[in-house]
Amino acid sequence: MAGPEMGTSVARSFAVLALLCLLVPCHGKLSTKFYAKSCPSVATIVRSVMAQAVAKEPRMGASIIRLFFHDCFVNGCDASILLDDTPTFTGEKNAGANVNSVRGYEVIDAIKTQVEAACTGIVSCADIVALASRDAVNLLGGPTWNVQLGRKDSRTASQSAANANLPGPGSSAASLVSAFAAKGLSARDMTALSGAHTVGRARCVFFRGRIYGETNINATFAAARQRTCPQQSGGAGDGNLAPFDDQTPDAFDNAYYRNLVAQRGLLHSDQELFNGGPVDALVRKYSGNAGMFATDFAKAMVRMGGLMPAAGTPTEVRLNCRKVN
């Protein structure tokens, strides 16, 4: 039978835990089985809607992967990026790296509608984005992995944090390593996650400087990109799209790294990964070993998916991903 000393000890332990939760994030542990009983059909629903979306437009797979990255890198994987602006609230959708760029919100809405019909008020939008990004990779021919679940949706968002935290297309290798390190992610994680640029498209405005002004670029590749991206800025051409990987633009493979070795990186920040810097050797390894890249990418996605909002952040399970309850 417990004596008074044990009762005092337990009380003291709870007090210490409460204090720690004020100092560091105290979140429920993520689990691959989080919805096993409360919403066992969630993964099937997400996969079904994603399969339809990617079949209709393969580029959407890349867009959903990017949506996950842009969510997680700003105050954790909390679906803050999904919140619409209101007259009294400024979200992250119009941050510099997101406006007229991040897309796929309507796909997440479609998934959420079906999930809510099956399990009302159970599954967070943040977990839906995490599952959808895994399925996007796999549907485009990439690896799959078990997604850790149990995130909550933030009731807040920060446009200023989005502007400050998301690496831009002009980033150097050193600044990329530093930005990822600030999130607890290694240079290897950064290099693997950058391989998501094996799919997707970029707008001319983001690679114009590289194809007209840089020398570490394959001349044939630069000329091909110049045909659809005029040198003069500010015109209609700014929005013209080009594939990150012009070899297999909609296949999730390791061609991105082969392109970098051949100086065919689309963005400055892409080519920086193979330009006499700290991750050149790893890029060369990935370029010749698709299995190594796929394994490292999956591990890095799980690690990035573990980024949580700070302690004290108000959270909930949103019923509509675009607005707080």
From TrEMBL:
Gene Ontology biological process: hydrogen peroxide catabolic process; response to oxidative stress
Cofactor(s) in the UniProt record: Ca(2+); heme b
Major location (coarse): secreted
InterPro entries, alphabetized: Haem_peroxidase, Haem_peroxidase_sf, Peroxidase_pln, Peroxidases_AS, Peroxidases_heam-ligand_BS, Secretory_peroxidase
Active-site positions on this chain: 70
GO MF term set: heme binding; lactoperoxidase activity; metal ion binding
Site (Transition state stabilizer): 66
Binding site for Ca(2+) 1: 71, 74, 76, 78, 80, 92
Gene Ontology CC entries for this record: extracellular region
Location of the protein in the cell: Secreted
Residues the record lists as binding heme b: 197
Keywords of the record: Calcium, Disulfide bond, Glycoprotein, Heme, Hydrogen peroxide, Iron, Metal-binding, Oxidoreductase, Peroxidase, Secreted, Signal
Family the UniProt entry places it in: Belongs to the peroxidase family. Ascorbate peroxidase subfamily. Belongs to the peroxidase family. Classical plant (class III) peroxidase subfamily.
Function: Removal of H(2)O(2), oxidation of toxic reductants, biosynthesis and degradation of lignin, suberization, auxin catabolism, response to environmental stresses such as wounding, pathogen attack and oxidative stress.
Name of the featured protein: Peroxidase
Organism expressing this protein natively: Digitaria exilis
